[in-house]
Design goal:
111 residues; mainly beta; seven-stranded mixed beta sheet; four-stranded antiparallel beta sheet
Length: 111
């Protein structure tokens, strides 16, 4: 069984930054791809960023150049650095690895 626990969400003004963290239990972390998804009210859950076990990354077009995903296998942790935040980034952000989801953390971008 794998558990994913997110943290780092909150309220931030437009143009601000947040860093989300996701700590994974279990020994599979270093070999698993990881991802961050988000779901805004009334919208479908969408992929924000993904990272493979060897560190290759991919991003949604809407966040390219503003968000950075990274991982620290020694800490079983994946991060999402979010800069230049916009109101449209407001959503619940979920950590994901195949077959497992975190509980989500709320990000609200508002003045």
């Amino acid at each position: 069984q794998v558990q994913l626990v997110e943290s780092g969400g909150g309220l931030v003004q437009p143009g601000g930054s947040l860093r989300l963290s996701c700590v994974a239990s279990g020994s599979i972390f270093s070999t698993n791809p990881m991802g961050w998804y988000r779901q805004a009210p009334g919208k479908q859950r969408e992929l924000v960023a993904g990272i493979t076990s060897d560190g290759s990354t991919n991003y949604a077009d809407s966040v390219k150049g503003r968000f950075t995903i990274s991982r620290d296998n020694a800490k079983n942790t994946v991060y999402l650095q979010m800069n230049s935040l916009k109101p449209e980034d407001t959503a619940v952000y979920y950590c994901y690895t195949p077959n497992f989801w975190g509980q989500g953390t709320q990000v609200t971008v508002s003045s």
